[in-house]
Amino acid sequence: MRKWLRRLFVELGRRVVVPRVSSRVVVLCYHSIHPTGSFRSATPALFSQHLSWLKQHCTIVHLQAAVRAASLSPAGQPVVAITFDDGFADNYEYAFPLLREHGVPATFFLTVGLLERNPVVLERLRTLWGAHASELRPLEWPAVREMQRAGMEVGAHTYSHPNLARLDRRTAELEVRRPKDIMEHRLGVPVRLMAYPFGKPHCDFTRETVDVVSGAGYEYAAAVTWRGIRASDSPFRIPRFTCSGDSVCTLRDQVSGAWDLLGAWQEWAPRGVRWSAKGPPAWWADVVHELGAGGAIGRDVPHGSNLEASRLDGEREGRGQAPEGPAVGLRL
């Protein structure tokens, strides 16, 4: 969308939507918090300014609590949930200390192939972000566990970050089921949250995608639509604002509702799936190969079957011992 048209929508939104700001429920989506990173959502200084403003003017809650709040039509301050997508190391190094300093929660959606250091997924995300290889540093699983213990939520962001709307059903099921299995193995808790890669309705996920995600055992799924949550919204289509170097003034407009007409435009003028043929993309076969799945990629791994193994890994960490090796047996 052209900048002049965006400004027009925002100005209209200020006049039409903002007066109802007290009942707003909003979800924000960041990716990278870094002083110099080429694909950062914000510098640590800017992110701290965001948190200061949000803490002063809003009630900050976990994503699940935000969805529940929308159904209750809250009065008073807007309710805001903070989320992060992908699972970069700077989430732990820069964002997490600031979240603790300000005393606010957040939800982290993890591209599991990134954390598992699958070389195909690493290269895919490097290409998507146009980043240098040295910039693309994944979170470590012990860091994720520490953030969990500090009260942060975690969810899945698929295994290899594909456009799920492009995939056939079987491939999409593998992409959403396997990261859930691996995360439950690594973290020892059920994983109920998920975020769609790219996240645009109709273009990046469809009704069939929602069915796949629900069938995999998730209870909530986050999208990218620039508006607040409505009471009528499905928990599998949670709208979010993406943050990309935005000023506090822009953040205020997003929280207050000035951007919601842009969200309506996104929903009523969908681009549609950008590929005519469905099926695994060319690089996806390399993901399967790197996992050593071979002909077994269709087999299911029972959900929660490795929760006890993960708890033992956590105990080993507490005793200064390394966790046992990779999540063997969890095939994509």
Q: Please, could you describe this protein's structure?
A:
- α2 (44-57) runs parallel beside α4 (89-102) and α8 packs parallel to α13.
- Strands 1, 2, 3, 4, 5 and 8 form a 6-stranded parallel sheet that branches.
- This protein has one domain (3-318): Glycoside hydrolase/deacetylase (TIM Barrel, Alpha-Beta Barrel).
- β2, α3 and β3 (79-86) form a beta-alpha-beta unit.
- Helices cover 42% and strands 10% of the residues.
- It is of the alpha/beta class and 332 residues long.
- The longest helix has 19 residues, at 169-187.
- The chain has helices at residues 3-16, 44-57, 63-71, 89-102, 112-115, 119-129, 141-149, 169-187, 207-215, 248-256, 260-268, 284-290, 307-318, and strands at residues 25-30, 59-61, 79-86, 107-110, 153-156, 193-195, 220-222, 241-242.
- The protein contains 13 helices and 8 strands.
- It starts with a helix and ends in a 14-residue tail after the last helix.
Quick structural gist:
This protein has 332 residues and is α/β, with parallel strands linked by helices. The protein contains 13 helices and eight strands.
Summed over residues and divided by their number, the pLDDT gives a mean of: 83
Strand content: 5-15%
- Number of DSSP helical runs: 13
- Return the CATH topology: TIM Barrel
Order of helices and strands: HEHEHEHEHHHEHEHEEHHHH
Structural class: alpha/beta
Total count of domains: 1
Low-pLDDT residue spans: 292-332
User: Outline, from the CA principal axes?
Assistant: globular
* Intertermini distance: 37 Å
Task: Identify the CATH homologous superfamily.
Answer: Glycoside hydrolase/deacetylase
The tally of beta strands, per DSSP, is 8
Helical proportion, percent range: 40-55%
Level-1 CATH class name: Alpha Beta
Major beta sheet, specifics? 6 strands, parallel
